[in-house]
Specification:
Blueprint lengths: L5 E3 L13 H18 L4 H20 L13 H29 L7 E4 L4 E4 H6 L3 H7 L3 H5 L18 H34 L1 H7 L12 H9 L5 H9 L2 E2 L2 E2 H5 L10 H30 L1 H6 L13 H8 L13 E3 L18
Parallel strand pairs: 1-6
Antiparallel strand pairs: 2-3, 4-5
Helix pairs in contact: 1-2, 1-3, 3-7, 3-12, 7-12, 10-12
Length: 358
Amino acid sequence: MSKINVEIPPLECPAVLLPQPKNLMDFFGLLASEAERALNSVDEDLRKEGEKLKEILDGVRSILSPYDPKFQRLSIPEHEFKIMIQRLIEEYHMYVPSKILDLINSVLPITFTAPIPGLGISVDILKIATDREYLNTIISQIDVDSMYDLLPSEYKLFNGEYGLVNAELKAKQIQDFIKNEVTKFMNGQMFDGFGGLISKFDTIWSALGLPSLPVPLSLDIKGLIDAAIANAQTDAEKLLALKNISIAGFSVEDLLGGEIDDNLVSLEFTIARINQKLKEFEQSWQTFLLKEWMNKVTSFFDAIGLGALTQWITFDFCMFMSVIGVPKTIDLSGFGGIKTKGNEFTSALGSQSIVPPV
């Protein structure tokens, strides 16, 4: 009897503050690719296995539906799952700041409307972090081509430069840009909010003798990307140059959790993935530094009646997956050819944790 044969990583629910996408991308991406391959087979037994596996994946896809690019003219299940995983991670990095800002707002007014630079639109940062269909609604109401033209150059992929032109993928780039700008705005609002609390309760703050806010990061990701590929002569050289970029001492491989396994190799998708991960990490690292500072000043939050803030310092990615309902285990015991193998790469991000004071 023919069967699906593939080696995948064990499914993880990583209890980390700086999640890397490799495990989940490889797990779901490889399964999606193999299910599609089996479904298109002339072998009846293999097709039945493909149908059974696709049914399992469709159940997960329904949970991840708000992150689904929902392509109408494309069918690339492997990369669709990888897009969903990256968006899941991005929403985690918006969800926690939204909870922090909402609590600060109970004491000090916070602006929740974020203007998106260059696009002429504004979004509600609380809705984008908690209403999982909100951004899809915004995208459905815009003219993709005209708004795509307004994007910064590093987001202008899928326009033919690497051989692929597609309006639906251009819409994905617009969505990626909006989410990154929202996270950047949230970080700015957290800095302003914490600074406002210190000023409002300056007597308490001074009496406790606590450390000042960290200095906001000033990273030019676009400059790093432009400089990296400036002298690259071929597409492959550009990709290699991007992989060699380092941020805050972490390599691109650290950010991803290792080299992503692609059955369907696409230079454009790989470049888009690295570009977006660099942008996302710029903001998630800033949030992490703020959490480290928050962990040092919990006595101040307790003194001003905002002790509830501290629960969000160590709210990790696995906890967020539980909130969303992403399964922590998937029964694949009915597939004799599906084996598991752990990731041999150890990311330097894995040691970045926060231990609450006793």
